[in-house]
UniProtKB/TrEMBL annotation:
Protein name: Xanthine dehydrogenase YagT iron-sulfur-binding subunit
Gene Ontology MF, one: oxidoreductase activity, acting on the aldehyde or oxo group of donors
One Gene Ontology cellular component annotation held by this UniProt entry: periplasmic space
Organism phylogeny: Bacteria, Pseudomonadati, Pseudomonadota, Alphaproteobacteria, Sphingomonadales
Organism: Sphingobium scionense
UniProt feature coiled coil, ranges: none
Record carries keyword Iron-sulfur: yes
Residue intervals of the 2Fe-2S ferredoxin-type domain: 2-78
Any matching Pfam family: Fer2_2
InterPro entries per record: 2Fe-2S-bd, 2Fe-2S-bd_dom_sf, 2Fe-2S_ferredoxin-like_sf, 2Fe-2S_ferredoxin-type, 2Fe2S_fd_BS, Aldehyde_Oxdr_Iron-Sulfur, Beta-grasp_dom_sf
Metal-binding as UniProt keyword: yes
Length: 169
């Protein structure tokens, strides 16, 4: 067992974990934060996406002990039912979910994607590397690691467009 200290959703947590425990399992099984979903458990679906140190990652592909001292944000840390994060609200308004299983990972990714664009981080489809801006193509490329079996993709892009202030409805 190894000691692990990190900040999760704004609070300091102290765990004793088997060093082989994934971040996903630490969140779900040890901290009881079950909003983050276990989908494929191979990093292919994005259901387990969380934000670590401002970057989105597949929590099933990383060991918890690799994040000693880091800040982790899960869907539970973005907002509450009484005070939703703007992306959570936009997903509701634009019906960016259907069955809802992938929604926590989609929302965490969408929040981080908008931060990437704002920071000027280019993607594979960025046309002008000196000016990284919003486009549906940028959003689709950046969200391509998050799979929605219900095919709510147009609604997810609409929600992101809304939060980005690019709503062309």
């Amino acid at each position: 067992m190894m000691a692990l200290d990190m900040k999760v959703n704004g609070r300091d947590v102290h765990l004793q974990l088997d060093p082989r425990t994934t971040l996903l399992d630490a969140l779900r099984e040890h901290l009881h934060l079950t909003g983050t979903k276990k989908g494929c458990d191979h990093g292919q679906c994005g259901a387990c996406t969380v934000i670590v140190e401002g970057r989105r990652i597949n929590s099933c592909l990383t060991l918890a002990v690799m994040h000693e001292g880091e800040t982790v944000t899960t869907i539970e840390g973005l907002g509450t039912p009484e005070r939703l994060h703007p992306m959570q609200r936009a997903f509701i308004v634009h019906d960016g979910y259907q069955c809802g299983y992938c929604t926590p990972g989609q929302i965490c990714s969408a929040v981080a994607v908008l931060e990437e664009i704002e920071a000027g981080v280019p993607s594979h489809v960025t046309q002008d590397l000196d000016h990284v801006g919003w486009s549906d193509a940028e959003a689709r490329e950046r969200m391509s690691g998050n799979i929605c079996r219900c095919a709510a993709y147009p609604n997810i892009i609409a929600a992101m467009r809304d939060v980005a202030g690019e709503d062309k409805a």
